[in-house]
Amino acid sequence: MDTSALGLTTTKAPFIEDAKAKGELYIRQPYELYTEQNQEAWRRMYRRILPRWRKYANPRFLEGIDKLAFDPERIPRLEEINTFLEPLSGFSAKAVSGYVPAYIFFDCLRGRAFPTTITIRDVNTLDYLPEPDLFHDIAGHVPMHTDRVFADVLVRLGEVARTAARLSADLPDEHARFRRAESIIKALARFFWFTVEFGLMRSNGDLKVYGSGLLSSYGEIAHCIESPDVQRYPIQLEWVVNQYFEIDHYQPLLFVVDSFDHLFRQVDELERWMLDGRLDNVSPGEPTINEQDMRSFLEATTATND
């Protein structure tokens, strides 16, 4: 079989499998490997979602699209994105080979780097993909990183994760460290999900989308605003950190912030709650904290003592 024909299609890319086999998390974007089908997947997704961005997306996202100068006809090169992005917020897109354990992910954010998938979904399955892909990461996330306040929210979340690692390390009992870390990671994951991934915001009296999971979904970006089946509430931290979520269907419950400054204040409050022990026993349920995520926090003690 000619593996080069597979290009950089998600779950089918030999380049990615080779990098994983070598234990390489941070990689280059081998642009020469994108096939015409990969490029066509980008073109189709960009072309069809653009009118919905204009209708439903937060104005800062639309400004970000313009500032990054995306080409609707071809997959962006990360170095080109970073040329525009870094002067605006200090952020950069950083190519990765796959899943990034939770602490490492948040620590990248603290350093103003966003772990970015370089594969793109199959041209025949554009509507849903359980794995992250380039369109979700680049078209969904990165335009928001051009906004300085939103970028600072991500950095602040990275700082909270660093504090979380220190708190877990402070406990003398291994079982207690495990329980605290699991609960705090779950709370952080839920907060990230209901804000950065699936957040809504008031904008001049209208509801607009700023969450990347919504911004990269042709179907859900309209559904989350228009459907009567979606419950939309002003953000309430106690509710958010105790609310489980599932990834394989449109979200039935979403939370609304007033502004990115409001969101930043929510992160500050999240850290205060954590320091007060209010995240030590959040409700059970999704997301499940896997071994990689848990180990990344528990092994971060040395890093947090820098």
H/E element string?
A: HHHHEHEHHHEEHHEHEHHH
CATH class: Mainly Alpha
Q: Could you say what the CATH architecture is? A: Orthogonal Bundle
How many strands? Answer: 6
Sheet with most strands: 4 strands, mixed
What is the global morphology?
globular
Q: State the secondary-structure class.
A: alpha/beta
| Helical fraction | 40-55%
**Total count of domains:** 1
Radius of gyration: 19 Å
Low-confidence segments: 302-306
CATH superfamily: Aromatic amino acid hydroxylase
The whole-number mean of residue pLDDT values reads 94
CATH topology: Phenylalanine Hydroxylase
What percentage of amino acids are in beta strands? 5-15%
The side-by-side strand order for the widest beta sheet comes to 4-3-6-5
Distance between the termini: 49 Å
Give a brief description:
This protein is an alpha/beta fold. It has 14 helices and 6 strands.
Structural description of this entry:
With 306 residues, this protein is of the alpha/beta class. The chain has one domain: Aromatic amino acid hydroxylase (Phenylalanine Hydroxylase), CATH 1.10.800.10. The protein contains 14 helices and 6 strands. A 4-stranded mixed sheet has the order 4-3-6-5. β1 (92-96), α5 and β2 (113-117) form a beta-alpha-beta unit. α5 (102-110) crosses α7 (148-170), α7 (148-170) runs parallel beside α12 and α8 (174-197) packs across α13. The longest helix is centred in the middle third of the chain and has 24 residues, at 174-197. The radius of gyration is 19 Å and the shape is globular.
